[in-house]
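B., you asked whether I could sanity-check this one before it goes into the benchmark set. Here's the sequence:
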Amino acid sequence: MSEITAGTVHEAYAFACMRCGHGWEQAYEIEHHVDGSGNAFVVYKADGLRVPSPLSTPTCTKCGGHVVRIMRAGRVSTVQQLLRPPQTARPKKTGQEKASDEMAVAAVRAPGPEPHHWHLSDLLRPFHRR
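And here's what the prediction gave me:
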């Protein structure tokens, strides 16, 4: 059975799990094909691998839940950027100040904070109407 590729479209979607609150984005290559009988079908690929349609049964990449909200691309990354603390510019230090700072850091090596676990409320807060 032969098939003809009618074209490839690139699309990206944002997802938010309603079960655990995890948010992520994924880009897809959507290949439109026509089989030997003239029937059209679509193949989804993510990162070069064939995957099921994200629109039919989306699955959370963190908890495996199937109650997933699909949004246009950019929604999750925009919210994640808004939730990051702003970085302040620091004046450049001299070589002696850098060496002093490195010794102080080496002497006190405290573990850093754990990465933030995203909750659905975090992702949807900027879109809440007041």
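One thing to flag: The radius of gyration is 23 Å. Otherwise nothing jumped out at me.
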